[in-house]
C-alpha cells in the first residue's frame, strides 16, 4: 500500500507555501524531510494528513484518493506538536480518543510503552516535561497502527537519552517492513543515522529526493587548495562551494565521475583531499544563500 503525493499545492495568506510537490513512499522506509525554517515542512505534513485542504494536487493511498475515502485516513498518523487541544487531558483520555479514531489502536502496546518509559497514565499532558511529551506523542503515533507515521521535529530540545529512546522505537517499527516513518527535523546528524531517503524542500519546491546509499556512492566532498584565490570554472559549474578560507576551498560534487575527477586534476590544485560527506554538507550545499556567509575571493 504505497503513499503517492501528486502535485500537492498549498497557499497560506496568499503565499504559495507548497508548489506542485510530488513523491511516493513505499512501506518500510524511513524518510527525512529537510529544509530551512519556514520552508513548508509542517504545512506539507498537515496537508497530507487533511488538517489543511489542498489548493491543488492529490494524496493517494493504494491508488485511491484519500479525500474521497475517509477510512483511509486511519493509515496516516500525524500528532502535531504545536496542537494544544490535548494539553488539558490525561494520557488515558487521549488514548480513548485515539481508540475511537483508529479502530486498530494497540492498547496493549500503548500500556507497555508507557510503563517502559515511566509515563503516568493519569497525569494531564500539560504537566509532562518536554521530553515526556515528546515520547508520549511518538508512542501515540506508533500505537495507532497506521502504516504511515509523520513526525515533526520529534527530537527537538530533548536530552540524549530520550532521543535515543525515540530513535529506538522508530527503528523497531520500521524494521517490520510494514510501516513507513516520515520525519521532519533539523537534527541532521541523528537523522542521517536512521533514514533511507532525504526529501529536500526549498521555497515551496521539492528540489532533491536523495537515496542516501546512492548519494554516498556518487557524491564527493573535496578540499582543494590553489596557488591563487580564483575558483576554477569547472569547480563552480559542477560543484557547490560550501566554504572558502583564503586559498582553501571545500566543494560538494553531487555527481562525481571519473571525467569530472580528471577535469579537476587538470586545474592543477596544489593540494586536494577527499573529506567525509554528510547530510549536513548536502544541506549547506543546496540551501546556503550568499548572505549566510561571505565567500572570500
UniProtKB/TrEMBL annotation:
Pfam families: ABC_tran. It comes from the Bacteria. The keyword Nucleotide-binding applies. Gene3D superfamilies: P-loop containing nucleotide triphosphate hydrolases. Keywords: ATP-binding, Nucleotide-binding. CDD domains: ABC_DR_subfamily_A (cd03230). Residues 3-228 form the ABC transporter domain. One of its GO terms (molecular function) is ATP hydrolysis activity. InterPro entries: AAA+_ATPase, ABC_transporter-like_ATP-bd, P-loop_NTPase. PROSITE patterns: ABC_TRANSPORTER_2. This is ABC transporter ATP-binding protein. It comes from Lactiplantibacillus fabifermentans DSM 21115. The lineage of its organism: Bacteria, Bacillati, Bacillota, Bacilli, Lactobacillales.
Amino acid at each position: 500500500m504505497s503513499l503517492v503525493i501528486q502535485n500537492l499545492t498549498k497557499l497560506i495568506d496568499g503565499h504559495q507555501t507548497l508548489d506542485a510537490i510530488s513523491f511516493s513512499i513505499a512501506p518500510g522506509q524511513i524518510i527525512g524531510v529537510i529544509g530551512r525554517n519556514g520552508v513548508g515542512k509542517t504545512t506539507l505534513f498537515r496537508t497530507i494528513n487533511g488538517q489543511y485542504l489542498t489548493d491543488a494536487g492529490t494524496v493517494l493511498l493504494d491508488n485511491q484518493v484519500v479525500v474521497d475515502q475517509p477510512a483511509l485516513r486511519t493509515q496516516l498518523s500525524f500528532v502535531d506538536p504545536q496542537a494544544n487541544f490535548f494539553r488539558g487531558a490525561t494520557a488515558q483520555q487521549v488514548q480513548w480518543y485515539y481508540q475511537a479514531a483508529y479502530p486498530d489502536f494497540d492498547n496493549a502496546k500503548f500500556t507497555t510503552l508507557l510503563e517502559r518509559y515511566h509515563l503516568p497514565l493519569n497525569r494531564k499532558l500539560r504537566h509532562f516535561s518536554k521530553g515526556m511529551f515528546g515520547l508520549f506523542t511518538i508512542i501515540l503515533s506508533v500505537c495507532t497502527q497506521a502504516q504511515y507515521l509523520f513526525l515533526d521535529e520529534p527530537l527537538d530540545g530533548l536530552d540524549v537519552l530520550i532521543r535515543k529512546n525515540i530513535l529506538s522505537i522508530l527503528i523497531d517499527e520500521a524494521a517490520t517492513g510494514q510501516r513507513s516513518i516520515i520525519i521532519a527535523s533539523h537534527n541532521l546528524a541523528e537523522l542521517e543515522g536512521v533514514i533511507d531517503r532525504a526529501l529536500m524542500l526549498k521555497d515551496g519546491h521539492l528540489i532533491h529526493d536523495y537515496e542516501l546509499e546512492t548519494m554516498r556512492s556518487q557524491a564527493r566532498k573535496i578540499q582543494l587548495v590553489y596557488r591563487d584565490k580564483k575558483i576554477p570554472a569547472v569547480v563552480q559549474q559542477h560543484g557547490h562551494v560550501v566554504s572558502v578560507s583564503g586559498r582553501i576551498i571545500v566543494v560538494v560534487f553531487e555527481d562525481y565521475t571519473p571525467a569530472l575527477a580528471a577535469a579537476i586534476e587538470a586545474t592543477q590544485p596544489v593540494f586536494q583531499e577527499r573529506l567525509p560527506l554528510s547530510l549536513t554538507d548536502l544541506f549547506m550545499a543546496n540551501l546556503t544563500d550568499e548572505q549566510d556567509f561571505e565567500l572570500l575571493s
